[in-house]
Structures are given as C-alpha cells and as structure tokens.
Write the structure tokens for this entry.
Amino acid sequence: SEDKHMLELGELVISLQTRSLLSAPLQIHSLELHDASILVTSNDSGDSNWQLLPDKPSDETDARSDDVPLLVDEADFSNVRIRLSGPTLQEASEILIDRYTHGVNGERIADTLSGEVNGFALSFNSDLGPRQNIWRGEPVDIQLTGSLGEVTLTASALVDDLLDPQRPSANLQLYGPDAAYLLNVLKLPPVANGPLTISSDVSIGEDRV
C-alpha cells in the first residue's frame, strides 16, 4: 500500500466521566476528531489490519450484554479520510467525512453526516430514541434518511430491544439508477445490474419474517 500508517491524527479531544473508567458503561461527554486519515485493509482470509485479537468462538460469545459498553453524549468529526482496500474491491476506495455530528437532545439521539465516497456526494441523518430505553431493553424507534450520489434511502424502524432484538419491524425505501451504478460507486465488482428499487416492510417475529 502507498499509505505508511494505519492512523494519522491532526486533533483528537476527549472529555469523559472519570468515574465511568471504573465501571461500565464508559461515558464520554464529548469526542472531537479533526484532520485524520485511517487505513483499513484486509487479506484473502478476511483478516483486517485493525483486528488486534482473534475472534471468539461462537460458544464464548454472549447472546446479549446487559450493559451498554460506551455512551457518547456529543461528537464532532471533520476532514476524516478512510481508505479501504482488500480483495473484494476492484481498487482502493476512499470515504471522506467532511463533517459528522452526534448529539443528545432530551431523550432523542441525532446524527448527521456529509462527505463523499469515491468522489460521489454522501449525506446521512438519523434520529433515535427514547435514549433511556436503549439500555433498559425497551422499544426504540429509529428514523433514517441518506443519499449516495443518485441513490437515496429512507427508512424507519421500531426495535423492541436494541441490545437483543426479538421482534423488530422496519420500512425501507431505496432508489437509484441501477445496481451497476451503486457497485461502481463502491468500487465493487459488477456482479449485478438492473433496476435499483427497493420498497419493503419487514416484521420479524418468532415464527415469521
């Protein structure tokens, strides 16, 4: 790779609740990241350069964690470049985050993102809440809107338990010129073509999808 480092940071500022270092969840009041470059690569086996520890066998992985491992009240990223390379990509792919913000407004959590993927405009907005329900195991509703080039996404979901969903429901609307257009934007092999139109209502229960 022409990149020399996995990570280059211009500015990183973290403000956290020191008491949360002793007991989960770790609570970060604010997180700022500016002027950063991140390199993510993988080999033919799917191992990533960021995979520091081997995966746990499936029987050692808990089906549910009752504790949220990390809480972030506010985040602000700008000029963050993520370079992706690996055997599944036709060539290296680059994501530029011009600006990303995350914030809490009462019981709602809002995220906004603007940037580019391989030169194609990217935007994303989400709204999630109630916040307290996330770690109480109670219903949470999610609203998403986004676009990548000429591809647009609108989605909404109601999740009964965000940490251990059993009966989530969702509505998804995805439109674009065609599948080949999206694969080209993402620099993926042209394995599909045809219209890119998805309109779906999904409900997952104990005995149905």
Q: What stands out?
A: The two ends are 43 Å apart (CA to CA). The CA atoms of residues 159 and 168 lie 4 Å apart. Confidence is low (pLDDT under 50) at residues 61-65. DSSP finds two helices and eleven strands in the chain.
